[in-house]
Amino acid sequence: MVLRMPARTFRPENEPPFTGNYFVAVYPPVSFWRRADVPRLSEVLGQPGRSRDLTLYVHIPFCERKCDFCFYRSYTGRPLSDMAAYVDSLLAEVRHYARTPFLRGRRLSCVYFGGGTPSLLPPLLFRRLAEGIKLLLPWEGMREATFECAPRTGTASSTTRRRWAGEPCRSRGPTA
């Protein structure tokens, strides 16, 4: 099996992302990525997974402002069209990996929507993202879905998004 990455459609123009130190600008840190590791990754993805359950982290890199303590990749003031393109790119990537023998037929036990500020995604985009993931990686029997939100974006619509995602476990606390 040869690993081919899906084409990326989300490319903010003329605005580099805010990044802090290089240790956590992306995860895993870029310093750990090596082209020589791609054949091994292809080999692993080409074999059936050893367990049934999966945990998925979905990074939503949009923020109202960049917090002083945060070193994760994030973008401020992005238009709705960029958010939609990002959601489409995420779904293309999940679709790509869900077809691999390593993930095929496995179900999610936990989904974590983090960022950034996932509660900045408009409800229709969040629904498109959650429905798309559910179609590709089954959520039946999922034990936990977590939806990170900043206090000032924790509105009724963000609560509805979490409920719609089937969040069986809730934790509260400020993220910004």
Structural account:
There is one protein chain. This protein has 4 helices and 5 strands, in the order αβββαβαβα. With 176 residues, the protein is α/β, with parallel strands linked by helices. It has a 3-stranded parallel sheet, with no helix packed on it. Strands 2-3 form a two-stranded parallel ribbon. It starts with 37 loop residues before the first helix and ends in a 12-residue tail after the last helix. It is globular.
Largest sheet: 3 strands, parallel
Radius of gyration: 17 Å
Uncertain runs with pLDDT below 50, 5 residues or more?
A: 1-9, 17-26, 166-176
Structural class: alpha/beta
Distance between the termini: 42 Å
Tell me the quaternary state. single chain
Q: Proportion of β residues?
A: 5-15%
Q: Can you write the helix and strand succession as a string?
A: HEEEHEHEH
pLDDT averaged residue by residue: 75
Quick structural overview:
With 176 residues, the chain is an alpha/beta fold. The protein is 28% helix and 14% strand. Helix 3 (123-136) links the parallel strand 4 and strand 5 (144-147).
